[in-house]
Amino acid sequence: MSDSDLKGGAWRVAPSRYAASREVEFALPARPASQYLAMRDGCRIAIDVWLPEGATGPLPAVLILTPYYRRFAVAPGSDADAIPNAGKFIRYLVPRGYAVVVVDVRGTGASFGTRDSFRSPKEREDSREITDWVVAQPWSDGRVGATGISYPGAASDFLASTGHPAVRAIAPLFAVWDTYADNYYPGGILLKELARSYDALMVAMDHDRRDLLKNYVYYANPDLRGPHPVDEDADGTLLAQAIHEHLGNFRQPDFMGEFRFREEPLPYDPGFSSASFSPYSVSPGIRPDVAVMATSGWMDGAGYANGAISRFLTLRENPVHLLLGPWDHGARCNVSPWRDGVTPEFDLLAALLRFFDEYLMGRDTGLRGEARVHYFALHAEEWRSAEAWPPVVETERLVLAADSSLALEPGEAGSDEMRADFAAGTGNGTRYERIAGINSTVYHADWAEKSANMLSWTSAPLAASQELAGHGVAELWITSSEPDASIFVYLSEVEADGTVRYVTEGLLRALHRKESPAPQAYRATWPFRSFRREDAAPLVPGEATRIRIPLLPTAWRFSTGSRIRLSIAGADADHCVQVPHGRPPVLAVLRGGERSSALELPLT
């Protein structure tokens, strides 16, 4: 089955149908105009300006602020794609009447400067100045939007947070709201492999190490020759100087290792913490009239879907549209086990065009009359619509029972025990690979094998199909032999023929088990943790403790005759650090009696 927007009738006018009737009036120029802009501190930022050929009137502009090269230099005579990252937006939006301005953020590409942070606050101030320049151009109509996937998506949040009056609409695609919890420390546990692999990618790009960059399938074409110089730098002298400055950029494993607790300042800079590079922290600056298209996928990294949902919940005074599809990071894959093919058929660019046409260009597209939430139900293979999140409010409670079963009623008190296996992992076909720059196209294909050695509880066969939509929660009563532990919980479907399918997961470091109300800048409908030092508390070994772990959101139909399975592990050696180091804890999960562990699922 495909992820076509015609599946399920969730739209009054599906994005693809809107795009089919939308005129394409202009041509794409062969190359952009390119130049340096000097920032407040003198740092020179490289930009490309793509203008529609044939357009005579002022134009709305879309900004893309990227660390992944605004444009590559290409070997003479080669047909290699010089704009593999921003190209899809340029080629689609420019002929439809938008100016697209693509920026190498400071310390990357052809821009000067060094990167002092992942999503540095300096970049936010740069985006404000760049917008000043855009609206001062004779081709500008004074209206600015922003978009991009992942890093550029979060940059669009930062731009809007400046409160610049020209910014009317942003489309953060597959972008975090909180870099700590959504990206590098899900559940308070550092993703060590992500930090390592992202660092390797950025060294390859920032240092113009083409010998390393060829290891990434997106940039493997040998005709790609590093960042493209700006027009004024005909011989590449300025580019060489800029790249030399990049050698002073931060290194991701060292940098992320500084942020063991959310919002705890650096020891050398009391004003800098994980909040400094997270969009939520500056979101109060987003004017309520700025429209937002928050987009993610069910297999989008460690928590990007949570980021999109929280963006939707937090900016409740804004016109916000939430789109959640059967995709991995960037919608490079349709991740459904029931897909027809790997490449998504959903026309994401059509949805983006309709959004910008409505809120940036000022057309009447009918978008304001559509539901605010659209999400794809896996196995049902249909799109659903809703006016709010969560789409399903009521939950069904399954309790952990004897004989490794999930039941409707708790039985006698007991427990099941395991020792964390620090050598065990979830492999290399998981939700984490794509955000690490790895070209993964198949997800959890070996899940039956990977989950076989976990502690598991399984329900009776379902008498009728049931559809999950939202966040499940594992409510566990545990004891631990150590004062800390990582707890990984996995939800699976065991089909009637024995096939075991991964559905979703959640993870939490026990040190961060204390729940707190979600702050105004990060609204949540699932159990929230501050991950701050003052809320952290070691376990008391041997003492029973109640811990609620939210599962990452999904929409999934369980078939008639299938069984629901909850599995627990104490490590994921392929992606996460050990907790505690070198001390694999013995964990006992209590069931029955007054301390009955359970699984709560929003099922219909």
From TrEMBL:
Record flagged with keyword Aminoacyl-tRNA synthetase: no
Please name the Pfam families in this protein's record.
Peptidase_S15, PepX_C
The source's domain of life comes to Bacteria
Start and end residues of each Xaa-Pro dipeptidyl-peptidase C-terminal domain: 353-600
List the keywords (alphabetical).
Hydrolase
Q: Name one GO molecular function term.
A: hydrolase activity
Q: Which PANTHER family match?
A: COCE_NOND FAMILY, PUTATIVE (AFU_ORTHOLOGUE AFUA_7G00600)-RELATED, PEPTIDASE S9 PROLYL OLIGOPEPTIDASE
Q: What is this protein called?
A: CocE/NonD family hydrolase
Annotated source species: Pararoseomonas baculiformis
What is the organism lineage in this UniProt record? Bacteria, Pseudomonadati, Pseudomonadota, Alphaproteobacteria, Acetobacterales
